[in-house]
Amino acid sequence: MIEGPRGTRREERQSLRKCVGAVFRPALMDEFPQLFHDDNLENCRVILDDGEIVSHVGLTQQWASIFGCTVGVGCIGGVGTYKEHRGKGYATRLFDDASAKCYSEGFDFMIVSGDRSLYRRAGCRKIGHDYDATITASHAQRLDTNVSIEACTETNIPTLSAIYRTEPVRFLRSPRMYKHAFQCNRFSGFWLVKKGDSVRGYVIASQGRETVRLAEYAGERSSILGAAAQLTKQYDCQNVGLHILGVDRLTQNILSEAGVELQPGHASGTVHIVNFPQLMDRMRPYFEEILGGSKTRRLEFTADDGAYQIRYDGDAVTIPDRGELAHLIFGTHEEMAAERLGCGGKVAEVMRQVLPIPALSYGINYV
Known about the structure:
seven-stranded mixed β-sheet; 3 domains; Aminopeptidase; 367 residues; alpha+beta; 17 strands
């Protein structure tokens, strides 16, 4: 008998471990405690066949801040079905179920750690005007600001949290999220960046063969980038790789001045818009900073029969599907959905000033 979609029950943990372990790797549940801890099992959406879990879509729900506006974000990962149960639409049903759950519980969009036909059909798209960079040894010498790195542990969580809270685009994290990050083995080191006795920032590293990648960083940019030489020595690597948000002009400028080439890149994963009008309403304080109160109040955002509309003083722009909507809201280096705002009219003129909004970077929130 087929049962679900529904959340996982505590007594079904072993069945869930068996399923995701077979589809991915045996240690997956241990690698992502932020997804598979007991209090989040209701968000581990599953379909069962004769009492055994055969398909899974994992979901975490959290809040984030984009330029001071609080938005609700669902993160999707651990999506898999036993080989013998594929082709029955189980993953599609579970993804739709997770999206409906996010909608009913007041969340705005989902970030999906993947890009395949299942997600594309649902309207997920790669988004973001971001950049990727590789700092070589010669670049590191030019960036060196005489800083040091110091290993940190769970006792430093208050410090990490305080630094991260200064970022303009970030998740809203409880101490528990940081504890989960220390528990998993995907990160090879948590490092405070210091100048003398003063903490200037932190980096979370993930080591490859020739490159140590900054899975997350926060704080004073010149000190963080100045720590590249220390990191290459610590990990005996040639390079440091990092992802830079499109809005992080300071990091881009420092790297460019040191001769580091910036490669256009997307934000992590793909994005699925869950509730367009609600997301835009939650971003109104940011819009008002740019447009002023009068213009912002005259903006209307609606969703009807799979189409999405922005109206302003009698003018309207219609976005035909979720995929183009994701591109319009968060931007993209590729399919320039913003061209839809190039058609003229008051609404296009106004929205060109506030879109795209910056995409979130996963960091330790990755599932």
